[in-house]
Amino acid sequence: MQKIRYELDPHNRLILNEGLKKTDLLRFRKVLDGNFKTDEDNNLSYHVKSPLSELEDMHNQIKISGRWSLTDDHELRLTLDKSSRKTFGDQITLQGQILDVDESSLIFAVTTTTKEDTRSTYVLNMTGSWRADKNNRLSFHIKREGGRYDILTLGGMWELNEDHQIVYQYEKADLIRKKKRTHTLLFKGYWDIKDKVRISYLLSQDTGSVFNFKTSAGVFKENYIQYEIGLGLTDRKKEARRTIKLYGKWTLKKDVGLIFEVEYGDGTIKAIIFGADAKLTGKDTVSFRLKNDIENKDIGIELELSRKIFIGDGEAFLRALASKRELAIYAGAAWRW
Fold first, then answer.
1. Could you point out which of 3, 4, 78, 283 has its C-alpha 20 to 30 Å from the C-alpha of 300?
2. Residue 18 or 130, more confident
3. Residue 51, domain member (yes or no)
4. Pick from 191, 173, 187: which is nearest to 269 by CA?
């Protein structure tokens, strides 16, 4: 039985090499028009549109197994396992671009050209969840069978737009015009704070997609919360810095706690909820020692707020504080008063 070896050409097409050794001689190389596809476990296969007549026994679907990663140029790479290396070599790198992202997927656009010089673009929808790595970089954990996952790391700098949303941009050469283009990825989510040295950006609770960024203690003021985050970037030896500054307003709600309300791009308002030990000060303010609202754990932040900003439930809370019964009371789901 004839042994088969494949290569990948610059147009993302499989090339059948009958000579088994890498060669540019056309008589030994045959182009297989087709598309790459992924299944529910993100396994890769190549679907041949019209097999060659002399290879009638070749399957229309060629499966390729390996481990996914992302190149520095933001292209999908599959490092092949032992079984696939017999016919494909060590790696397959798909040229294209990250077209879009959402809470549970990364969509990669692949451009190909047929033997008739017809250009077309199709997408690979990689499924999984988003996380922050130990260097506070954005990473996508690709779902694999057996509970495993592969990691795609976005090695560049991410930003915050005016709507408090995370934006990631990267540059790469356009395959057609050969000029560099800027590609922008928008991560739609909202911020939360549960720990002393961590601020989180939640994309989806159902899929577990959340960026938990390591940081130093935050700065909490009457109209904003600010954190400084260090970023270990792929192309830099020195750590970069990123400032997270969330503008909003504080309020108190009975059976909920101390709330910081942040408005996002579509007008949606999301609340960051805290528990707190509270006491009156001698300068028309209230001092809060913040805790997370789930475990009642101290997060190491003290905040002074003007009594004037509290209305509704907040006014009742202030009256309880002003009474002589207690020097301090707890604001949270188990509000004591």
1. 283
2. 130
3. yes
4. 191
Which of these, 190, 218, 220, lies nearest to 204 by C-alpha position? Answer: 190
Which is nearest to 113 in space by CA: 10, 36, 29? Answer: 10
Max mean pLDDT range (160-164, 174-178, 326-330)? 160-164
Distance CA 20, CA 2 (A): 10
In a domain, 272, yes or no: yes
Q: List the structure tokens of 21.
A: 């050794």
166, two tokens: 């995370």
Range of the domain at 329: 247-337
Most trustworthy range by pLDDT among 110-114, 235-239, 260-264? 260-264
Q: Name the one residue in this structure whose structure tokens are 């490092």.
A: 79
Q: In Å, how far are 43, 114, 117, 118, 178 from 111, measured between CA atoms? A: 19, 10, 12, 11, 14
Q: Which helix (H) or strand (E) holds 314?
A: helix 313-322
Percentages helix, strand, coil for the chain, rounded to the nearest 5? 10, 55, 35
Q: How far does Cα 98 stand from its chain's mean position? A: 12
- Which amino acid, one-letter code, is at 242? R
Q: Do residues 247 and 169 make contact, with C-beta atoms less than 8 angstroms apart?
A: no
Cβ proximity of 259 and 272 under 8 Å? yes
**Residue 252, pLDDT score:** 86
* HEC-encoded secondary structure of 249-305: EEEEECCCEEEEEEECCCCCEEEEEEEEEEEECCCCEEEEEEEECCCCCEEEEEEEE
- Alpha-carbon distance of 261 to 273, in angstroms, equals 9
Residue 212 included in any domain: no
Same domain for 185 and 41, yes or no, is yes
How far is the C-alpha of 18 from the C-alpha of 209, rounded, in Å?
45
**Looking at the predicted structure, is the pLDDT value of residue 292 above 90?**
no
